[in-house]
Amino acid sequence: MTEMIKLFVNGEEVEVESGKNLIDALEKVGIEIPHFCYHPALGADGNCRMCLVGIEDGRPPVVPACKTLAKEGMKVLLDADNIKKIQHDVMELEFINHPTDCPICDQAGECKLQDYYMKYEGTESRMWVPQVTKRKMQDFGGGVIHDQERCVACGRCVRFLRQITRTGELGLVNRGDDCRVEFFPGRPINNRYGLNVVDLCPVGALTSADFRFKQRAWFLKRAESICHGCSKGCNIMVDHNKEKYEDDIIYRLRPRQNEQVNGWFMCDEGRMTYKLENDNRLEECTLAGAVRPLADIFADAERRIERATKVLFLVSPSASLEQLAAVQALAEKTGATVSAFSDGYIVKDDGDDFLIKDDKAANRAGVDLLGIAKSRTHFDNMAKEADVFINFGNDLSRSLSEEQIGRLFSDTWVLNGATHPGQLGAVMEKKVGSSIALRSWSEYHGVVVNCDGIAQKFVGGVMKNVERPDIVEMAAGLGSPATGTAAAWALVQKKIPALAEFGGFLELPAEGVKLTDNEAGK
Amino acid sequence: MAAKVKQLPSRGGTPAEKVYLIEIFKGMAITLKHFLRNLWDNSNLYVRHYPEVQPDIPARWRGRHRLLTHPDGTPKCVACFMCQTNCPADCIMIKAGTRIDGVTEKMPVSFTIDLAECIYCGYCVEACPEDAIRMDTGIYAFTSSNREEMKIGMTEMLSLKGGFPEEEYQKGLEGE
Ligand code: SF4
Ligand code: SF4
Ligand code: SF4
Ligand code: SF4
Ligand code: FES
User: Among B49, B61, B115, B121, which is least packed by CB within 10 angstroms?
Assistant: First the structure.
């Protein structure tokens, strides 16, 4: 437990965590100290002066909150007249040359300048000299667009690229009203985490070329999810919206803070995985090449499973624990074998020492926890013997070539549950007995375990126009005893005792549950 | 204050009235009387001879929308979505993109208003920070036999002209 200390804010006593600066300590108890340059992941820089607070009987009497540790008995003044004047005047300074582009600025709606103007300034400009104009719409590389006029020179972007990625592409040049952020000539932003500067920038000076002008921030619905791009499981926010007469579309992914996992950041590739959720999705369920209702496909497949001598189920290493358990239960009931063969999900030497991992599967640790075999030999042997093969969303084309898949299943009846075309290879997909278009991770809820054995919940907020089953529903349709996500969760809890104390998966804490080594590495 | 109650005598109770037919012919006789009188001389009618005679509408009348242009013909709209956000009928549908005509950075790629759903409240005009949308075309009659045609697009709205002199429109804005 962190130690708690007592201090006074505007004369009222509050209890805060010790060891934090005033901004963080007071934020935890719901008191805002306005600030631009400080960011918990980048530390205090003390350059913007927006965070100045008064300390009663203090020497000095006015201090930057970002650089001041919260101390027992401190008397912090936030509503004193001199502090209000400082906040007002700092804001006025920021606005002297600010273009106030809000109508065409993507940051509008989530902009610190807008918020603070409404709260701490709110006066008309007193300027009558022409504003200093600078460059706009500058391509900073890495999908980042810079607007020099909107920049408040807080240096967050510069510090991120120096401290976190250690690539140092950006720097602040010149002083006063000529101060601006620039990249070194010929060396634009070029690293795998560059787009994080867009989230870090407190104003609209850095925007994403990909998201640019697609949506206004206030239209977006948000779902707290986990990135399924690799086994790190970065916490993300899925920003999506269903426009009138159109489908529910994801417009961007943003990192969500989780100190245990990704801190405040995510990688650029992960950020772009939303495109897969939107584009080129399978929509139809087929039986012998013809589009048929799901119930017919289930009934037909169930009959075939009953009659078959050997049945093989293939699950995806990115499927949620609930989905894996539901398929396992179905296998137990029907005597089928389950494999999570997915060697192709591992991209050797792609990972780094920050967030990106070699393993591009979101739940391989979960596969191991549930004791599902995943070796190539096991899969090959089973595939050769099987006369019915059912794929539950595994992208087999990552692990095997078309010929290999064709050879393995040359005389096998195949039911292919998939999110995108091509997951069994184009040739095989023409020959399959049945196919089911599945829901993808942004459309269902669940729990996945990341590479460090942390079980994390995620919520699927996207509601597509085309109704598709998720893997739990598919398994249930084929006769799995786990008839829904709740029943599947109960099965998961039986197999992973550390999760048993949480009623529903939603009760998992936001920062995830760290499974002990012997639980996670079983 | 107590509510005032006025009791009206109930009619239609006499045997002659109960036959109905007599009353119906009496009523038709009144209609015929009016018809013949107005056929002879219709100057007393409180009716506008629409559409031959068009009404005189003020500059602030909220008619059909138009999108305004800069003097060089480029659209004033910057696709800020204020109008769409403010529209209570949710009938404005904008798609934004990067500006290609050199004026600022952002412009609408498509801008559609579904006039079948519009309630002509004028909130879009009030919300616009660029004076890019107005309802001063003076066009108030707009009909169609199918829903799709009730949607008007960007090109059409850009081509419409204001129906009033600028000073008169601005006068209407005084006090806002
Ligand atoms: S940075 Fe903020 S205040 Fe400046 S134009 Fe963008 S939204 Fe408006
Ligand atoms: S671009 Fe944004 S993050 Fe970078 S210094 Fe300017 S305001 Fe700060
Ligand atoms: S007049 Fe009202 S209902 Fe019609 S488009 Fe404008 S805001 Fe929407
Ligand atoms: S409010 Fe005005 S500038 Fe903004 S999108 Fe609507 S018409 Fe265009
Ligand atoms: S946040 Fe403290 S000076 Fe900028």
Answer: B49
Q: Are A145 and A204 in contact (CB under 8 A)?
A: no
The DSSP annotation for A448-484 comes to EE-TTSEEEEE------SS----HHHHHHHTT-S--S
Same domain, A86 and A114: no
Q: Which of A487, A467, A438 is nearest to A315 (CA)?
A: A438
- Pocket test of ligand 2: the residue of A114, A156, A163 to mutate, having most ligand atoms within 8 Å of its CB, is A156
**Which atom of ligand 3 is nearest the CA belonging to B117?**
3
What is the average pLDDT across A470-488?
95
Is residue A277 included in any domain, yes or no? no
pLDDT score for A329? 96
Integer Cα distance of A162 and A170 in angstroms: 8
Which residues between 196 and 215 in chain A have a beta carbon less than 8 angstroms from any beta carbon of chain B? Answer: 212-214
Host domain of residue A308 = 286-514
User: pLDDT tier at A521 (50, 70, 90 boundaries)?
Assistant: very low
What confidence tier does B1 reach under pLDDT thresholds 50, 70, 90?
low
B29 lies in a domain? no
Whose C-alpha lies nearest to ligand 4, atom 6? B83
Best residue among A95, A134, A136, A150 to mutate for probing ligand 1's pocket (most ligand atoms within 8 Å of CB) is A150
Read off the pTM: 0.90
Ligand nearest to the CA of A34: 5
What ipTM did this prediction achieve? 0.88
CB atoms within 10 A of CB A307: 11
